[in-house]
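Below is a filled-in request sheet from our internal design queue. Each sheet records the structural input a requester submitted and the sequence that came back. We keep these sheets so that new team members can see what a complete request looks like end to end.

REQUESTER: design group, bay 2
PRIORITY: normal
MODE: inverse folding
CHAIN LENGTH: 253
BACKBONE (tokenized):
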């Protein structure tokens, strides 16, 4: 029992360290530009999501693929996809329903969607409208350097941590859980897939909230770690992780 508690504390610490690393990119006093290329999955994608700007190679494969090994993005990736989805709601559209935007973020993560180019990554929300692309991969680092120097010379001011993120609460969570249940009943996903989806939905809707509430980034990061620790302790997740390490292929269990 003591060994299990020690392992739990170590995993929690590792998750906190990684979250702190990604958040330090976002709130660094100096501008940060990342330059992804080739395959950028999982934690690499979370690094991309938290930079001030991205200068991506045109041929970049990028995605949050953690559900394939039985976990959820817990380095700020789930939080950031929610923030980006909500920020995509048209300005001034006070009557716009935010749920479809949250649902899109849910589907991107739950289906482990992978963009096969930098331009496709923009459509998935992995790159923003301000991010740029280098067609010549040999110029990528030089282009990224020019970009970060431009940000620095333009009077860069580090952003402040967000405390205004809309969490839709139990109503939206119930709707997502109904969709998960229907997918399971139809045989499209396994019981463990449904558990992962439920944990993901809980983060994206703010956990146990009775009504829509404005929450902080740290609140969502805490939900990420809680879900990650719960999932990684499950036997089926451990089987998925082991199978991926041994074969390099996902296990559907």
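RETURNED SEQUENCE:
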């Amino acid at each position: 029992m003591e060994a299990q508690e020690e392992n739990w504390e170590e995993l929690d610490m590792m998750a906190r360290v990684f979250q702190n690393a990604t958040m330090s990119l976002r709130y660094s006093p100096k501008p940060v530009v990342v330059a992804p290329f080739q395959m950028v999955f999982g934690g690499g994608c979370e690094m991309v999501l938290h930079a001030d700007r991205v200068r991506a190679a045109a041929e970049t494969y990028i995605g949050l693929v953690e559900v394939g090994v039985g976990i959820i993005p817990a380095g700020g990736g789930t939080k950031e996809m929610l923030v980006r989805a909500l920020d995509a709601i048209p300005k001034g559209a006070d009557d716009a329903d935010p749920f479809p935007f949250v649902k899109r973020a849910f589907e991107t993560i739950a289906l482990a969607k992978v963009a096969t180019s930098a331009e496709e990554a923009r459509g998935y929300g992995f790159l923003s409208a301000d991010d740029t692309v280098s067609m010549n991969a040999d110029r990528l680092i030089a282009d990224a350097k020019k970009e970060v120097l431009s940000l620095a010379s333009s009077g860069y001011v580090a952003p402040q941590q967000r405390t205004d993120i809309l969490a839709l609460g139990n109503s939206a969570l119930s709707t997502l859980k109904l969709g998960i249940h229907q997918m399971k009943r139809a045989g499209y996903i396994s019981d463990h897939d449904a558990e992962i989806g439920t944990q993901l939905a809980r983060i994206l809707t703010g956990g146990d909230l009775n009504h829509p509430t404005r929450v902080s980034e740290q609140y969502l990061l805490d939900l990420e770690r809680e879900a990650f620790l719960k999932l990684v302790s499950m036997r089926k997740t451990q089987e998925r992780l082991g199978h991926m390490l041994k074969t390099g292929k996902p296990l559907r269990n």
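SHEET NOTES:
- Residues 2-26 form the longest helix (25 residues).
- The chain is about 55% helix and 10% strand.
FILED BY: M.R.
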